[in-house]
């Protein structure tokens, strides 16, 4: 603003200088030109008067402008002073705010410390009242929540199972029962004969030969061990390969009938027995294929199937088991409107790997799948073979039906045998699993291990807990034991009250 005032003042001064110079020139002209006369003199005086008036007006405007400028400077000065006062107050207020913030932070810290101390005292008081630490209380709360969740899950599972059972049990029972009833099979399957009866004990010496050359030659040619003990009129043939043991048995029977036993005759009898067994195996395979209704199959696979005529599993003949499994699977497939020939083929070939388990290491399911794949069987058949023992997760209906029919054939009453020792061990382990659960009072294995009764303490296990206990016992039995068929777990919870009237 001061700069503006200076500029205006300089303009006024310059204007005054210009006017003065003009007047001087006009006066000088009138003096130097006397010929102008009185008229010129009058004009000059009039101009001077007019100039003076203009100059007075200019001075008045300048004074007025200077007054306004002075007033404006005064107002600006007042405003500047007020601004300075306002800035001072703001600085003072900022200082007070900083002090208040510092005080609030100090109070907050103090309050946090007091709150932490109060919580510590409350936790200590709660621990003294509850007689447990915070970790123990947390663990107890988690345990209660877990128990509540398990109870709710058990209720939900029970309702879902009841609904599913009501809808599917009748249909499943009808399909399985119809499939099993339509299969006509022996209750006890035959096993490989390994004991040979002799016409007399003198034949043992002829089998042994001079210095044991006959028995050594027989074992070297056939690969079958001959055991001669004190059993009257009998010898025992031992070999892991059932087909080779059968060849040795036929060869030994031929030698005993002929009466001539020497190394050359042993080789001739072995070759004849091998051809006879091959024919019997091929005939057995053809009969099995005809019974199942399979017409197209590779000749090598047919030979491997025939070898299963002399293979047993838990006392059950494997080839007959395959025929029975195929019939059950075909009936189920027909009830479910599936491809019956494909399902029967899957079920019939599912144990083909057992023909090579004495020659190739590995699971018979994986061996059978590789064997079937190498001879051009379809992917559905190969997958059903490799998945029938869950070594590969089943992902087709054919594989699931193969599993179900295999379980039905092997788990039906009288299908398989097991020795007394393994049976007793399984029964004891079943009772141990149930007895190891909390709240169990007594355990009884019934119906040859097909059912287990668990008596629980009613004040420890409630109704929902009984369902949870039954499920846990069943799941542990499934994970730890191998058994034919199924095992029913029944949990009994009973409360009794009695009084005597006198």
SSE layout:
Blueprint: H1 2-32, H2 37-130, H3 134-181, E1 195-197, H4 202-208, H5 213-222, E2 225-227, E3 234-238, H6 242-258, H7 263-292, H8 299-307, E4 312-313, E5 316-317, H9 318-335, H10 340-348, H11 364-374, H12 379-386, H13 397-411, H14 420-435, E6 440-446, E7 451-456, H15 463-480, E8 488-493
Parallel strand pairs: 7-8
Antiparallel strand pairs: 1-3, 2-3, 4-5, 6-7
Short description:
The chain is mainly alpha-helical and 502 residues long. It has helices at residues 2-32, 37-130, 134-181, 202-208, 213-222, 242-258, 263-292, 299-307, 318-335, 340-348, 364-374, 379-386, 397-411, 420-435, 463-480, and strands at 195-197, 225-227, 234-238, 312-313, 316-317, 440-446, 451-456, 488-493. The strands form three sheets. It has a three-stranded antiparallel sheet with strand order 1-3-2. A three-stranded mixed sheet has the order 6-7-8, with helices on one face.
Descriptive notes:
- This protein is mainly alpha-helical.
- The protein folds into 4 domains: 76 residues; 102 residues, K Homology domain, type 1 (Ribosomal Protein S8, Chain: A, domain 1); 125 residues, Orthogonal Bundle (Hypothetical protein af1432); 73 residues, GMP Synthetase, Chain A, domain 3, CATH 3.30.300.30.
- It contains 15 helices and 8 strands.
- The strands form 3 sheets. The chain has a 3-stranded antiparallel β-sheet. Strands 6-7-8 form a 3-stranded mixed β-sheet, covered by helices on one side. A two-stranded antiparallel sheet has the order 4-5.
- Helix 15 links the parallel strand 7 and strand 8.
- Helix 1 runs antiparallel to helix 2 and helix 7 runs parallel beside helix 9.
- About 4% of the residues have low confidence.
């Amino acid at each position: 603003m001061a700069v503006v005032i200076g500029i205006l003042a300089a303009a006024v001064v310059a204007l005054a200088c210009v006017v003065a110079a003009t007047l001087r020139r006009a006066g000088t002209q009138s003096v130097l030109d006397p010929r102008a006369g009185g008229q010129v003199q009058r004009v000059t005086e009039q101009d001077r008067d007019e100039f003076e008036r203009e100059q007075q007006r200019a001075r008045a405007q300048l004074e007025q402008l200077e007054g306004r400028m002075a007033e404006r400077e005064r107002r600006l000065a007042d405003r500047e002073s007020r601004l300075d006062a306002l800035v001072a107050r703001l600085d003072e207020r900022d200082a007070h705010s900083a002090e208040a913030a510092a005080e609030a932070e100090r109070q907050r810290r103090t309050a946090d410390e007091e709150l932490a101390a109060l919580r510590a005292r409350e936790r200590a008081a709660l621990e003294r009242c509850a007689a447990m630490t915070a970790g123990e209380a947390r663990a107890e709360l988690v345990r209660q929540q877990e128990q509540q969740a398990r109870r709710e899950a058990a209720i939900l599972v029970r309702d879902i199972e009841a609904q599913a059972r009501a809808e599917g049990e009748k249909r499943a029972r009808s399909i399985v029962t119809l499939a099993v009833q339509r299969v006509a099979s022996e209750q006890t399957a035959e096993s490989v004969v390994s004991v040979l009866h002799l016409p007399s004990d003198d034949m043992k010496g002829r089998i042994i030969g001079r210095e044991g050359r006959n028995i050594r030659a027989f074992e070297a040619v056939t690969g079958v061990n001959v055991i001669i003990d004190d059993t009257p009129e009998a010898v025992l043939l031992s070999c892991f390969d059932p087909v080779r043991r059968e060849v040795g048995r036929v060869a030994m029977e031929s030698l005993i009938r002929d009466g001539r036993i020497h190394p050359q005759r042993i080789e001739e009898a072995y070759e004849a027995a091998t051809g006879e067994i091959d024919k019997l195996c091929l005939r057995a395979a053809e009969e099995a294929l005809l019974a199942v209704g399979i017409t197209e199959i590779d000749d090598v696979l047919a030979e491997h199937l025939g070898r299963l005529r002399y293979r047993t599993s838990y006392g059950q003949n494997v080839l007959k088991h395959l025929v029975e499994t195929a019939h059950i699977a075909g009936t189920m497939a027909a009830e479910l409107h599936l491809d019956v020939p494909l399902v029967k083929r899957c079920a019939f070939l599912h144990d083909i790997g057992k023909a090579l388990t004495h020659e190739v290491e590995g699971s018979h399911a994986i061996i059978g799948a590789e064997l079937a794949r190498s001879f051009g069987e379809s992917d559905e058949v190969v997958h059903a073979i490799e998945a029938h023992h869950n070594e590969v997760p089943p992902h087709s209906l054919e594989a699931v039906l193969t599993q179900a029919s295999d379980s039905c054939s092997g788990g039906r009453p009288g299908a398989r045998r097991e020795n007394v020792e393994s049976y007793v061990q399984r029964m004891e382990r079943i009772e141990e699993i149930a007895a190891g659960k909390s709240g169990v009072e007594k355990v009884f294995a019934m119906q040859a291990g097909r059912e287990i009764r668990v008596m629980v303490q009613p004040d420890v296990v409630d109704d929902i807990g009984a369902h949870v206990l039954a499920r846990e016992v069943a799941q542990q039995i499934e994970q730890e034991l191998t058994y034919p068929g199924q095992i029913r777990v029944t949990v009994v919870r009973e409360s009794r009250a009695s009084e005597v009237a006198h």
